[in-house]
What we know:
Layout: H1 2-10, E1 17-19, H2 23-28, E2 34-36, H3 43-50, E3 55-59, H4 65-72, E4 77-81, H5 84-87, E5 95-98, H6 103-106, E6 112-115, E7 141-145, H7 154-163, E8 172-177, H8 184-191, E9 195-199, H9 203-211, E10 215-219, H10 223-230, E11 234-238, E12 255-260, H11 266-278, H12 280-293, H13 298-308
Parallel strand pairs: 1-2, 3-4, 4-5, 5-6, 7-8, 7-10, 8-9, 10-11, 11-12
Amino acid sequence: MLPLFDSFIENDINTTFIVEGDDVIYNILENRKTIQTDWLSNKETFYISHNTQDIVIVDTLEYPTTLFNRLRHTVRSMYFVCDSYLESKLPFGTHVLNWRVNAELNHIRNQKGLFGSDFVPLRQEIFAYKRDYDEVQYGKNIFISMGSGDILNLIPKTLEILFNSEKYRDYKISAVIGKHHKQYKELINRYGLKVNFLINGSASELFSLISKSTVAIASGGHSIYEFAYLGIPTLHVLTANNQKPALSWDSSNFTYPIGWYDESIYSTKLLNGLEHFLDFNNWKTSRIAGMNLVDGGGASRVVKSIIQK
């Protein structure tokens, strides 16, 4: 939501960010007009504070029907950030914001809103690291990102596979982790001299590291759009039920789909995917496809479209 917040501010619209989160989230938002509250548990307060707003954008996996139905009739413009799975649960006529790949082709026809990767918002820090198709030469750099929580503990498994493969032992491997990772100390002790760990890094540090990578290994999430924008071919593994719509990447020509995590075949699929991108033509095709899908103008398009409506 940060790129949307910033884009509204750039368009001189008084904007407030209502968010529930931990200290990391609040640190990111410290210079923005923010209300920090468990807003889903304080529905009446949320309703009262929002029923006179011109625009409300909601991003949540939960859908308190009564609350949002009340709001829909009192605000001028209300949008729900969702994917095709959540979209099916919303009342017909609800305005949605669904930037999933190919959502413009697959969304529920009776729903109104903005659909497709043209509307994906990206953090401003990423724009400093975009390069042209041919500026990056094929190298030996692997970047691993399994989400802030790495809920299936895939970083240790992935590193073990890579270091057990003679072909990838001379590759430079980077991984993004938080100090809250369940095996943080073990990872640092075992791989600290072999792997470049980005620990609770800033957005600029993250994008700088990604932009220097040859390929990425990542779980399904918003980060896939960031890899696409930077043109970093990605081996894509799904780890949680709410990532089901991320299957739409499979037909994009950008990712190599590993599919849902399955311990019995993960190693084979991972090595097959890396082998796929060892072919320069496959690597370049993926790179161009990703950069064509995500051009970085999504947040601006969302805000301008909503303002015009």
